[in-house]
Amino acid sequence: MKKRNYYFDNAKFILIFLVVFGHLLRAFIEDNEVFFALYKAIYTFHMPAFILISGFFAKGFNEKGYVAKIAKKLILPYIIFQVIYSVFYYYLYQKPNLKIDPFDPHWSLWFLVSMFCWNLMLILFTKIRPSFAITAAFAIGLLIGYIDWVSNYLSLSRTFVFFPLFLVGYHMKKEHFYSLFTFRKRILALGIFLAVFIGFYIYPDTQYQWLLGSKPYEAMGAASVWAMFKRLGIYALSLVMVMSFFAFVPRKQYFFTTLGKNTLYVYLLHGFFVKVFRESNFASYFDETERIVLLAGMSLIIVLGLSSKLITSFTQPLIELRTSQMKKLLGRLSVGLRLNQGR
Predict the structure, then answer these.
(1) CA angle at 216 for the pair 211 and 218, rounded to the nearest 5°
(2) Mean pLDDT in each 10-residue stretch from start to end of the chain (343 residues)?
C-alpha cells in the first residue's frame, strides 16, 4: 500500500476545518465586523487551496477507467445528496413544495459537479503548452463573468472561475510546496495573512460575493470593463493567500493527520449541522467577538465527529457506495461480543 503524504493530509484536514468554520461564521457577518473580516480572509484561500490540491492529485486523469471512477466518486454522491438536501430543506424551512432539481446544486454540492468538470477539462487543456493553457484558463475565468446566464446553474460559473487554480495545481510538483518551508517565507506569509484581515476590517464594504465565483458581474453590480480587472485582483490575492497557507501546513503526523483522507465525508455531511445551527436560537449565543474560540471549537468537534470511523462506516454506502468500513466495524463488534460472552 502506498504511504500517504502527511503534509497533504494535514492540509486537507485544516482546510475542511476552515470550510466548516467559515460556514458557521456566515450567520454573524452582517452584525460583527471582526467575523466579517475573518470570513472574507478565509474565503480568499480555503476553497482555492482545496481546488489546487485537487488538481495536484488529478495527474492520473488519462489512465484507463479514470472518468468512470471519478463519475462514481463525484456524480453519484452528488445526485444522492441533492435529493437528501432537497428533502432536508423542505422540512427545515417548511417549504410549500418539495422541489428536486439535479441541475441546480444545493449549497456546497457545487464542488462535486465542478470537480467532475475540471477533470474532464484537463483532457483538452493538457494537450496545450502549460504556460499557454494556464493563461487561457485565467482568460476564460475573467471573461465568463460577462455572460449573464452563467451562474450557479450546473455550477457553470464556479467551474470556469476556479478552473485556473485546478490547472495550476495539476502542473505543480511537491517541490513547489516544499520550497515554501523557509523561515523568511513563513514570516512573509504571516504578514500577508494579517494584512489581508486588517484590510478587510478597515474596508468592510468589499463584496464577499467576489470571492465565491458563483455570480456574473452584472449580478454583483459591476458589468463594466473594469469588472474583469477586479476578478484578476481576486485571483492574485487568492494565489498569494493559498501559497501563504501552504507555507504553514505541518509536515509531521499528528492526531488529526489520518482524518485528512475523510474530508469528503465532512464536506457532504456538515451542512445538516450548519443549517440547523443557523436556524436555532442557540446561534445567538455566539455573536460576541470573544466567543469566536467557542465557534472554532464547535467547528473542530463537527470535523472530528464526521471524519470518525463510526460516522464514516455508517455513511460510506451513501458517499462511496461501498460497505467495507461497515463490515469492518460490525466484525470488530462481533469479536468484542464473543470475547465478552467467553468471560
Answers:
(1) 115
(2) 83 97 93 94 97 94 87 94 96 92 93 96 94 98 96 95 98 95 95 97 92 94 90 98 96 94 96 94 84 94 96 92 72 60 58
Q: Distance (Å, rounded) from C-alpha 34 to C-alpha 60?
A: 42
Q: What is the pLDDT of residue 133?
A: 97
- Letter string b/e over residues 49-67, b meaning 16 or more CB atoms within 10 A of that residue's CB: bbbbbbbbebeebeeeeee
Q: Which amino acid is at 215?
A: K
CA angle 46, 240, 181 (to 5 degrees): 90
pTM above the 0.85 mark?
yes
In order of 176, 254, 260, 283, the CA distances from 113 in angstroms are 28, 32, 21, 31
As a whole number of Å, the end-to-end CA separation of the chain is 37
Spatial distance between the Cα atoms of 138 and 164, rounded to a whole number of angstroms = 5
The answer to whether 117 and 162 have CB atoms below 8 angstroms apart is no
pLDDT score at 2:
59
Single-letter amino acid code for the residue at 334: S
